[in-house]
């Protein structure tokens, strides 16, 4: 009984899910603001809609897991090395769920105001401009904070009240508290292993998120993706994946990072344009990831094994 009361009075995340624009059965009390009721966002976020279905080749149960997480408005962390499909996945999910997607590329110079918003001076005086996080929270978008560890920790903490049960964003300078729109969700990306101890998410940030692990797909799937995205045939794509697998085995033995799916797509695109495979692989796979002459030789010989 007590629990039911609690649920009725203070369950912002569950309320958000049930008030979402996808559920039409519930009528809302008059006092709720547009942001809270999930009313149409009057075209404000139209430019953030993913217009066409992005090509995304699922590699496991990540689509179903994300949908379940979104249905309870759980903030999600996408973990995985560079160029393995995290951004593509979130674009695909935004399209599938029919929600606008606001992406923020985080960097260490970013301040809380860059996320939340600031007063601007114009001819008619000062006016408030929502930052991307406030825009997403107010009008109901998925806010994707790419490379969130790049941001300073004092910046990252502004997402805390939005990513726990409160689902609010206090705009201290403006004296306003935004109650997150029911469709709002935070997604962050994170490259495990790139962090130093100084540059990692706080536990209090990490523990506000569910996490999905990403990695390079298994051979056949990755070749399918490379062929689709670059326009080369599957046989060429498979050879490219073989080369990448060799390079990935050198990670930690002279290479900081293996060859990503993105790099394979670059190589494939050059080959599809008529560049000789050897040259294409040197430009797109070997030279970008290492300057070490021995390592370049080792990778070159992997290339010549397959082309
Ligand atoms: N599962 C997949 N389905 C379709 N395309 C994929 C998939 N995985 C990777 N790709 C392709 O690889 C490219 C790179 O992926 P993406 O940009 O999503 O990487 P990322 O994980 O976000 O990397 P970073 O951490 O550097 O931002 C995409 O543009 C897409 O073409
Ligand atoms: Mg990305």
From TrEMBL:
Keyword ATP-binding attached: yes
Compositional bias per record (Basic and acidic residues), positions renumbered to this chain: 1-17
Composition skew (Low complexity), residue ranges: 18-27
Gene Ontology molecular-function annotations: ATP binding; ATP hydrolysis activity
Positions of the CbbQ/NirQ/NorQ C-terminal domain: 222-305
Keyword ATP-binding: yes
Record SUPFAM superfamilies: P-loop containing nucleoside triphosphate hydrolases
InterPro entries (UniProt xref): ATPase_dyneun-rel_AAA, CbbQ/NirQ/NorQ/GpvN, CbbQ_C, P-loop_NTPase
Region (Disordered): 1-40
Keywords: ATP-binding, Nucleotide-binding
Domain annotation ATPase dynein-related AAA: ranges: 76-209
Similarity comment: family membership: Belongs to the CbbQ/NirQ/NorQ/GpvN family.
Protein name: Protein CbbQ
Organismal lineage: Bacteria, Pseudomonadati, Pseudomonadota, Betaproteobacteria, Burkholderiales
């Amino acid at each position: 009984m007590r629990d039911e009361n609690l649920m009725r009075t203070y369950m912002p995340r569950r309320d958000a899910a049930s008030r979402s624009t996808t559920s039409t059965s519930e009528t809302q009390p008059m006092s709720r603001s547009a942001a809270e009721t999930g009313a149409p966002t009057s075209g404000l976020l139209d430019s953030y809609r993913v217009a066409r279905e992005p090509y995304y080749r699922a590699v496991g149960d990540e689509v179903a897991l994300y949908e379940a997480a979104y249905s309870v408005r759980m903030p999600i962390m996408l973990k995985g090395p560079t160029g393995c499909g995290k951004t593509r996945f979130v674009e695909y999910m935004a399209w599938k769920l029919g929600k606008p997607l606001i992406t923020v590329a985080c960097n260490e110079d970013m301040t809380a105001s860059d996320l939340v918003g600031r007063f601007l001076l114009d001819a008619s005086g000062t006016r408030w401009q929502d930052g991307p996080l406030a825009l997403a929270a107010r009008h109901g978008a998925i806010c994707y904070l790419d490379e969130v560890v790049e941001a300073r920790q004092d910046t990252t903490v502004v997402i805390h009240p939005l990513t726990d049960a409160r689902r609010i964003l206090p705009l201290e300078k403006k004296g306003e508290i935004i109650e997150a729109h029911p469709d709002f969700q935070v997604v962050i990306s994170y490259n495990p292993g790139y962090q130093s101890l100084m540059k990692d998410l706080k536990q209090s940030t990490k523990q506000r998120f569910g996490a999905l692990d990403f990695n390079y797909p298994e051979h056949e799937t990755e070749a399918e993706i490379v062929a689709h995205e670059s326009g080369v045939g599957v046989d060429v794509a498979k050879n490219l994946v073989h080369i990448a697998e060799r390079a990935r085995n050198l990670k930690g033995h002279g290479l900081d990072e293996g060859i990503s799916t993105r790099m394979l797509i670059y190589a494939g695109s050059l080959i599809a344009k008529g560049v000789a495979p050897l040259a294409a692989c040197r430009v797109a796979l070997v030279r970008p990831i290492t300057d070490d002459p021995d390592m370049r030789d080792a990778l070159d010989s992997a290339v010549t094994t397959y082309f």
